[in-house]
Write a structure and sequence with these properties.
It is built from no helices and four strands. The chain is mostly beta strands and 67 residues long.
Length: 67
């Protein structure tokens, strides 16, 4: 059976809000993802309103629950 070429990853907000995105990444990549995405809970530094584009960094997926 062939090995999977993609792995699921969790992208956590660097703003500290706890907001997450889930994405796929190639297993051959030798780097961690760091993407700038929209966080609806982050406070915008200029306006003070909720909602800002911040960096999201890759974290490990939590272990799945076994029945």
């Amino acid at each position: 059976m062939a090995k999977a070429t993609y792995v699921k990853v969790r992208l956590e907000s660097e703003a500290g809000t706890g907001y997450r995105y889930y994405a796929k990444r190639s297993t051959r990549a030798e780097y961690k993802l760091k993407l700038k995405k929209y966080d609806p809970w982050a406070i915008h530094p200029e306006t003070g309103n909720k909602g800002a584009h911040v960096y999201f960094v890759e974290k490990k997926m939590p272990p799945s629950k076994k029945n």
